[in-house]
Fold:
Amino acid sequence: MAERTGGTGRAGRTAPSVTTATVVRKERLTPHMLRVVLGGPEVAALGADRFTDHYVKLLFPQEGADYPEPFDLERVRAEMPRELWPAMRTYTVRRWDPVQGEMDVDFVVHGDAGLAGPWAVRAEPGDVVRFAGPGGGYAPDPQADWHLMAGDESALPAIAASLERLPEGAAAHVFIEVDGPEEEQKVRTGTGVSLTWLHRRGGRVGEALVRAVSELDFPEGEVQAFVHGEAGFVKELRRLLRNGRGVPRERLSISGYWRQGMNEDGWQSSKREWNRRVEEEQEGAESP
Structure:
């Protein structure tokens, strides 16, 4: 997926536990999506099957940093200057297989842009990588009358995993925006799923998503919604769902994974304030 909110950690917080894995293999899914399969005994013991939006925070060493062995993130944060802490980039767990001891992580790759994408391109079988997590909080509710899922490339792995978790015959309207038809992927869909691929073709991220969800004729019954991706369109869809459609907050999983014009560290440092302002603005509005 595209880099999700991660950051480099905050002083005063307990460091999360860290898993050490090795690169098993890679697979090119589309021209700009690369899957890296991580494995090892610690991966097998991870426990990443409760949620369909499970994520891990990949740790990237700072150049010139000499970290303690065995690696101890809490000790690193306590004893080393902040500029030497490993950089974190947060990615969805697309698949976790405890029997094989494998975990799939999908990366959006745009040349040399970013930190994790170029790493994925260079990664070779046997390379060691560390990560914290998993976190997560969403899985399809089998009791929902219908499901709405909408997102860009950064949400595609979680949406694909969620579709695989839907009960047979469950009703779902799914909208996934990618740059063009070459970036579409094969995803599993049931008989009740309507999947629409949207192509931005260099246009504004999320514009097609907002239009498609706005034009959707909402079915009767209680919806469970999953909306993730670039923060700008997520804000627009949140307003539509909360203030326009009256979807209860507890039936809505929604978050800006990234923000146009910011790297992940910049978005991480401002995300809390962004979310506070959005809540203040939209929850103060009258819902039907």
Notes: Confidence is low (pLDDT under 50) at residues 1-12. The chain is about 25% helix and 30% strand. The chain has two domains: 18-135, 146-283. Residues 145 and 222 are 5 Å apart (CA to CA).
